[in-house]
Amino acid sequence: MKKLTKEDINQEVFDLYDDYAHNKIDRRQFVEKLSLYAVGSITVGSLLSFITPNYVDTLLVQPDDPNLDSNYITYSSPKGGGTIKGLLSKPKDSTNKLPGIIVVHENRGLNPYIEDVGRRAALEGFISLAPDALSPLGGYPGNDDEGRALQRQRDRNEMLEDFIAAYNYLSYHKNCNGKIGVVGFCFGGWIANMMAVKLPTLKAAVPFYGGQPSAEDAAKIKAPLLLQYAGLDTRVNAGWTDYETVLKENNIEHTAYFYPEVNHGFHNNTTPRYDDKAATLAWDRTVAFFKEKLK
């Protein structure tokens, strides 16, 4: 059987997956609607297999990379979930104090992709902390479907407190110079925006296709923003115009990039929504932004 490629798949399938991944439809509805696109040699099973994240073959930085010290730690989040687990990564044998980056997961917990992003950030010369907001419920369960179900059990404002607590933990870490930024994806993009609202000492925020704060909240932002949006992501992009207006009215430093003809989640290299050209450019811009703002 011919291996499926993105070009074989109708854009409506990606839109359908977006609805499923963001809890607008349940799995039964997803599979039922997916069957409408199973034509000829393309079966429902092959579509499901193609669009499901592949965490086995997609890691860019191995967990035991010899250039890194990367280990799980726990920290206290008294206003959030209590005790939170996170992956702390830094360049091996670094002697200087390093700028810090909080890496915020999507709406399914600390999966292998986000851990990989944390290690990528560390290889660029940062100390990174990638928390798991599912820690109070036992942590990321090993698959995204169960992860989404667990994350729906938590209040998102309490989870925001968990990432604010991660910022506080990292700011006092012996290997951190106290200059900290945040990068987040999807749900994590909203968290990145909101950390910029809540933390006047945050040095930089990079939300990838993240929901925008209210106008009242947005006006409080002090941190420079680098905003990364997917051109085909009409759901999230709908909030940009109002957000941009507030940022301009309040002279808040920001740069926004819209990557044409790519889907929400284009940075996530474990699913077919991934776009290598856009993801590479967006990540290069992210690293350069942090190196400028956290120096």
Summarize the entry for a quick read.
By secondary structure, the chain is α/β, with parallel strands linked by helices. It is 38% helix and 20% strand.
Description:
With 295 residues, the protein is an alpha/beta fold. It is built from 11 helices and 8 strands. It has helices at 11-21, 27-34, 44-51, 112-123, 144-151, 156-171, 187-198, 215-218, 234-237, 240-249, 276-293, and strands at residues 68-77, 82-91, 98-104, 127-132, 176-185, 204-208, 225-230, 254-259. Strands 1-2-4-3-5-6-7-8 form an 8-stranded mixed β-sheet. Strand 5, helix 7 and strand 6 form a beta-alpha-beta unit. Helix 1 packs antiparallel against helix 2 (27-34). The termini are far apart. The mean pLDDT is 95. GO terms for molecular function: hydrolase activity. It comes from Thalassobellus suaedae. This is Dienelactone hydrolase family protein. Its EC number is 3.1.-.-.
List the helices and strands and how they pair.
Elements: H1 11-21, H2 27-34, H3 44-51, E1 68-77, E2 82-91, E3 98-104, H4 112-123, E4 127-132, H5 144-151, H6 156-171, E5 176-185, H7 187-198, E6 204-208, H8 215-218, E7 225-230, H9 234-237, H10 240-249, E8 254-259, H11 276-293
List segments where confidence is low: pLDDT < 50 over at least 5 consecutive residues.
Answer: none
What gyration radius follows from the Cα positions, in whole Å?
Answer: 19 Å
Number of strands: 8
Q: What average pLDDT do the residues reach?
A: 95
Organism: Thalassobellus suaedae
InterPro entries: AB_hydrolase_fold (IPR029058), Dienelactn_hydro (IPR002925), Dienelactone_hydrolase-like (IPR051049), YqhI_dom (IPR057802)
Pfam families: DLH (PF01738), YqhI (PF23678)
GO molecular function: hydrolase activity
